[in-house]
Amino acid sequence: MHTKSITAIATASVTTTTTKLIAPAFKPQADAIKLNRLLQLCSANLPVGGFAFSQGLEYAVEMNWLTCSKTTASWININLEESIAHTDLAVLKRLYSALSRHDMTAFQYWNNHLIACRESHELLLADVAMGKALIRLIKQLDKLDTSEYQIIIALKDISFVSAFTLCAYLFKLDLTSAQSGYCWTYIDNQVAAATKLVPLGQTQAQNLLFELTENIQFIIEKSNQVDDENIGASLPHLAMASAWHETQYSRLFRS
């Protein structure tokens, strides 16, 4: 009897432990799907043409403003902390909020605000061209229901930030994931351009990605504290580099 009791207790303990381990059955699967959607949205294979634009970086290299991994990191990080944080990410938060409230008027307002903030024709061209390309993709993705967002889909000019936010929302990503993904997309495109232009080695590029992404949480928190009246940040060197790029004698990137 004593042996049977011990066996029964041991079996019960094992059963209880096993039940606790397998209890959260479906959450990991849902998280995995969301992670894959985020990776899909931020993939370099996303057909939006981001690889065609250097965002002023090509001219900065031509002028020897960027000559190595260190100066490249400084250039990209300043753009992230000032321009991206105070404009793109700050407005992305408002666009996401507008979608959650189904406020299409607010969404259009902030989309127009973003377009007005672009400081050169080249930056405007890149923003709108990539935005339109992403909208075309969204329309052709069979699994997405865009019936409630036809006003946005039909916009003549749409910022890439706006299209990215809509796609993230349709992919059921939370705001922080959308903001993180947008930062990664910008960093990845800039490092890819720098790899060709500076140039950087592949290992240098990977180290640069590590360095720049460590600051993403700080940049997101900074952007979330920006008030409506303080949205927008001017970076004269970036504006001039993108404006002068169109007259650069030899170019790899679109202008």
In short:
The protein has 255 residues and is mostly helical. It has helices spanning 2-22, 27-42, 57-62, 69-100, 104-117, 121-140, 150-153, 160-170, 175-197, 202-213, 216-224, 236-244.
Summarize the structure in words.
By secondary structure, the protein is an all-alpha fold. It has one domain (33-42, 51-244): Urease accessory protein UreF (Orthogonal Bundle), CATH 1.10.4190. Helices cover 69% and strands 0% of the residues. It has 12 helices and no strands. α4 (69-100) runs antiparallel to α9, α4 packs across α10 and α6 runs parallel beside α8. It is globular.
Nearest-integer average pLDDT = 90
Shape: globular
Number of strands: 0
Q: Classify the beta-strand content into a percent band.
A: under 5%
Major beta-sheet overview = none
What is the CATH architecture descriptor?
Orthogonal Bundle
What is the number of helical segments per DSSP (H or I, 4+ residues)? 12
Secondary structure: helix percent: 55-70%
Helix-strand pattern, N to C?
A: HHHHHHHHHHHH
In angstroms, what is the radius of gyration?
A: 23 Å
The CATH H-level homologous superfamily? Urease accessory protein UreF
Query: What oligomeric state do the depicted chains represent?
Result: single chain
Kindly list the characteristics that best describe this protein.
mainly alpha, Urease accessory protein UreF, 12 helices, globular, disordered N terminus
